[in-house]
Automatic annotation (TrEMBL):
This is NAD(P)-binding protein.
Length: 47
C-alpha cells in the first residue's frame, strides 16, 4: 500500500499532524514503539 505520509514516533506533534492530514484526505502510516499515541502526554487512569 502507498501512503502520503509516514510518521515514525508519534508524540504530540506527530499525532496532531496525522489527524490533520487524515482530515484533508491524505493517507498516513503511523509507527511507534509504544502501544499508544501522543508520547509523554499519555494517561492510563483518570482520577
Amino acid at each position: 500500500m502507498n501512503y502520503n505520509y509516514l510518521i515514525i514516533g508519534v508524540g504530540l506533534f506527530g499525532a496532531v499532524f496525522a489527524h490533520e492530514a487524515h482530515k484533508r484526505g491524505k493517507s498516513v502510516l503511523v509507527i511507534d514503539r509504544r502501544p499508544y499515541i501522543a508520547g509523554n502526554i499519555y494517561t492510563e487512569e483518570i482520577f
